[in-house]
Amino acid sequence: MKKYILATIIGTVTLTSCLSFFPNRYEKALVYNGFRANMNTMIGTKVNIKGYYSLVTDSNISTSKGDYSVVDNGRASTLAGYNPFIIYEDGTYGNILFNAVGKDFSANEHYKKVDMELDKECKPLNNIYLMRSGYYKVKEDTICVTTYIYYMLRTQLVLLRYKIIDRNHLLLLDETYISGNEDDTCVRNRIFEFIPAKTLPSSSLFPIKKKRWAWASKKDWKQFKHRIARTSKNKQESIQ
Question: Where are the alpha helices (DSSP H) in 130-217?
Fold first, then answer.
């Protein structure tokens, strides 16, 4: 009995340490202001957004855009940051998974098709380890994104920085992983190119929109949840 009690106490302490409060004070100091009601970042005046951004890959030559030259050796990557993504004017950033590739994440990184109906041919990338949805803020020529993943039973922030090269190309400068009170920055230097699409999935589908910490105002967050609930109810009633 005593051994059982001791094991329970140790297990509880370990689990509690893993499930520490998120975001803590250090994490809050690093994230950018989140979503707001009726938000419009005007990102469409700087880059094209009716479509998605896909990793530029060429195993033989360097890809040059302006003052930047990046060589990609064509190897498969498991980094979530290399998956295609969509940027919305309401501040939403999200990785997508194409229906055509199933769960082949390596194939997903390099899948390209012009003029797709993305609301029908893809879905948010919601793998528990690879999901990347977030919100962004534009600082001069840089798009600063706050995203998150799940690691060791805890939400972990991942900050991304994309430099705007031109209206059709973004350079992923780096990724910074925030764990507790520490951060680790990984230099990436990968170019993403814009692929136009006919339609886009709703930004409301990305899981970041449901997180209270991702909203600057609790009131706006509640209004968003009520709006989504009403939309879902109306769809169900129309089907019946």
Answer: none
The answer to whether residues 103 and 184 touch, using CB atoms and an 8 Å cutoff, is no
Distance CA 134, CA 94 (A): 6
Closest CA to 53 of 186, 187, 164, 181: 164
Residues whose CB is less than 8 angstroms from the CB of residue 48 and which lie 6 or more positions away in sequence, other chains included: 167, 168, 194, 196
Among 53-57, 79-83, 162-166, 167-171, which is the least confidently predicted range? 79-83
Do residues 108 and 183 touch, judged by C-beta distance below 8 A?
A: no
pLDDT tens track for 161-200: 999 999 999 999 998 888 777 788 888 889 999 999 999 9
Distance CA 128, CA 137 (A): 25
C-beta neighbour count of 185 within 10 angstroms: 12
Sorted by sequence, the CB contacts under 8 Å of residue 114 that are 6+ apart come out as: 195, 196, 197
Question: Residues 136, 146: contact at Cβ < 8 Å?
Answer: yes
- Please give the structure tokens belonging to residue 126: 């919601």
Q: How far apart are CA 110 and CA 100, in angstroms?
A: 12
Q: Across-strand partners of 89?
A: none
Structure tokens of 210? 């449901």
Neighbours of 151 (CB within 10 A): 14
Q: Are 99 and 123 in contact (CB under 8 A)?
A: yes
Rounded CA separation 230/51 (Å): 27
Q: In whole angstroms, how far apart are CA 153 and each of 12, 16, 18, 45?
A: 13, 10, 6, 39
pTM of the predicted protein model: 0.81
